[in-house]
Specification:
The structure is a homodimer of 426-residue chains. In chain A, the strands form three sheets. A six-stranded parallel beta sheet of chain A has the order 1-11-10-9-12-13, sandwiched between helices. A five-stranded parallel beta sheet of chain A has the order 6-5-4-7-8, with helices on both faces. In chain A, strands 2-3-14 form a three-stranded antiparallel beta sheet. Chain A is of the alpha/beta class and 426 residues long. In chain A, 58% of the residues are buried. Chain A is built from 17 helices and 14 strands. Chains A, B: InterPro entries: Ald_DH/histidinol_DH, Histidinol_DH_CS, Histidinol_DH_monofunct, Hstdl_DH.
């Protein structure tokens, strides 16, 4: 951890820099994958699964038998934990439903908006060492609540051509029937453009490696929406002297273990606390199974001592972290001033991992400084908000002259005439 | 207007096609503009205003004197019309405020989300023949309500170096102080990257020509958010025999006058109504100042006769129009089934132009089929929704074991440890 004692304001911007993502150089390769999937459809997915996943697929789709066989493989303890998380996430996201509210903006002019589920969505869940069933919960639950008509899950197969049992269990719990055995850019291509068996979706969600990130970025220029731009995961912890250094160290390490490019930032108003946390990190990291990964991330991490907690918060707002942990005595006070962050964890008993799994908030959050201008995934991400308006005859009489005047001033006479022709008839 | 009588379902998809936008070929030129603005800042804006707007600028910023001089140039009638629109738009968008709602997802685990204004936003308003002060209202009002700290307006100067008086009047009414005299890709570059006097913004809103559209698309890959992807404006009108053919024709023409690439679609369950509307269009278009533009758009427009209003709605949902007008006897019934549209105008007395100017709904809406997967601009577009969570000691005891189990199952031991280390201490 590189440490900075009382950096000057002019130095702050440099400390908030993220590593530059070099996605441009991947575009040519990703475009080749796109072309292959567009030309050969499912056959391309089978070919690419053999190439990248070393899997021989009979079908690109998971069968009912595979799902049925997976269910008993998941321990009862894990099933109960998933159930608890499911209920909390569902409760929090159901509270995000926006009731239809009719607003009579003036007598006889009524406007409202209505949320309608995006019809077809694709959820991408990466494979690899950790089966991210928690991400499936985070995406599948709001998709369900939104009433999306078609939900496609795509995740890469193992070398045996199988999908992780907990992923299948979770998909089944969510009522997701269509599970595609595809990873990487080919999964994004299949969902964006469709194949003979995969429907083209309207919006694609989920994390992934740099090929997935580049592919998602590219399909946004081809009519498909995505959840948000992606970058390495991040945490910023603000701690004062009331924080337990071991708790803080554990929080920093839970971010560091994600990957060597994870961003870990520690800000405190206490030099002493910085020393304690550094010692606790050194102690705990040695015991982690993912020690090597965490150490690489820690090499790029920074620890900053500032004069006051207000300064710490100002730094955090400039950094715009994906996760912000307020390990301070009065987190409520500090939280009031948060202007740029994905999700905020308040006090000493709210570690990031509770939000990653089970508290109810969504863990798909803006990284890479995008907390400046994007929200995390929520029910909003799975709906379109359609506006409606209905005027009575009298309403049109009342509003019409203003519309005529404005249309005239903008030089749009046909716009004006659409009102005039009605007013003349009334 | 090309007409199609009872097209088969298999033919529908072809009828919903939009013209392909060829933005890729503009990228090189736009990148050159980006480079110039990044290298030379305001001097580049002055240079490009001379080149493209034929304007000699003393400063790239509008002065207080210019604003003061503009105010008396706007007629009292127009000021009153703007005031009426302002109040309606404000009322509708204020109703979109989301109150903070604390959800105790389980005992001791409290989650909520809070909307915080995006700190710095840029509003682009095109110049040209029509000064779109209505768009400035549609963007400026929600930006104000959201509490965006810095609002930059950019709009191209006339050859005299001036900005349209109504635009200045409206900006002043909205409390927008920083008005940049820049158009085209250079305006987007200035707001995205900043110059010595222009602050780099977090999100850019507003319509524009193909260079502006390409530039906005490009900056989304550079850390800046935009309102939504853009395409030519569209209307789809569904009418039955109760509709007045002259009203429908006026609505179709108010779309057609926008530009030669405007998309105009008419769907009816009555062959007779199609004939009447065609006759009314022919009659009205001859009287329009923008007759040539409207006629070009009409050449590409389509009129479709289907068997039932339900079929008409199904076609509309597939088309996903920016504006949908339901000129039918019972619009409430049809409106229930709308799944893909930007904004819906119900009944015979709700022409699109009331929504374009003054009813209260936003007129910045998804075009080009993006009503499948994007919402129109609303208060949501100007805020980030930050989630918060706070656990009590007991809350962590209750949720902790599930988090430990799930983290373990995902192979993320440091995530587990952040809980364990706390539970051990409690």
């Amino acid at each position: 951890m590189k440490t900075y004692l009382y950096p000057k304001l002019a130095e702050w911007a440099a400390l908030t820099q993220r590593p530059v993502q070099k996605l441009d150089q991947l575009r040519t390769g990703v475009q080749q994958t796109f072309d292959l999937v567009q030309q050969n459809g499912d056959a391309a997915l089978v070919e690419l699964a053999a190439k990248f996943d070393k899997a021989t697929l009979q079908s690109v789709w998971v069968t009912e038998e595979e799902v049925a066989a997976a269910i008993p493989q998941v321990s009862e303890e894990l099933k109960e934990a998933i159930e608890l998380a499911y209920n909390n996430i569902k409760r929090f996201h159901e509270a995000q439903r926006e009731p239809v509210q009719q607003v009579e903006t003036m007598a006889g002019v009524t406007c409202w908006r209505k949320s309608v589920g995006i019809q077809k969505v694709g959820l991408y869940i990466p494979g690899g060492s950790a089966p991210l069933f928690s991400t499936l919960l985070m995406l599948g639950i709001p998709a369900q609540i939104a009433g999306c008509r078609e939900i496609i899950l795509s995740t890469p197969p193992s070398a045996h051509g199988s999908i992780n049992a907990t992923i299948l269990y979770t998909a089944n719990r969510l009522g997701i029937k269509r599970i595609l055995k595809a990873g990487g850019a080919q999964a994004i291509a299949a969902m964006a453009f469709g194949t003979e068996t995969v429907p083209a979706v309207d919006k694609i969600f989920g994390p992934g490696n740099q090929y997935v990130t580049a592919a998602k970025q590219m399909v946004t220029q081809m009519g498909v929406a995505i959840d948000m731009p992606a970058g390495p995961s991040e945490v910023l912890v603000i701690a004062d002297d009331t924080a337990d250094a071991n708790f803080v160290a554990a929080d920093l390490l839970s971010q560091a273990e994600h990957g060597p490019d994870s961003q870990v930032v520690f800000v405190t108003n206490s030099e002493n606390q910085l020393k304690n946390v550094q010692a606790a990190v050194a102690d705990q990291v040695a015991k982690l199974p993912r020690q090597t990964v965490a150490e690489q991330a820690l090499n790029n991490s920074i620890g900053i001592v500032v004069n006051t907690l207000d300064e710490a918060l100002a730094f955090s707002n400039l950094y715009a972290p994906e996760h912000l942990i307020l390990s301070v005595e009065a987190p409520e006070v500090l939280a009031e001033g948060v202007t740029q962050a994905g999700s905020v964890f308040m006090g000493h008993f709210s570690p990031e991992s509770v939000g990653d799994y089970a508290s109810g908030t969504n863990h798909t959050l803006p990284t890479n400084g995008y907390a400046r201008n994007y929200s995390g995934v929520s029910l909003d991400s799975f709906v379109k908000k359609i506006t409606f308006q209905q005027l009575t005859r009298e309403g049109l009489e009342r509003i019409g002259p203003a519309v005529e005047t404005m249309a005239e001033a903008e030089g749009l006479h046909a716009h004006k005439n659409a009102v005039t022709i009605r007013l003349n008839k009334i």
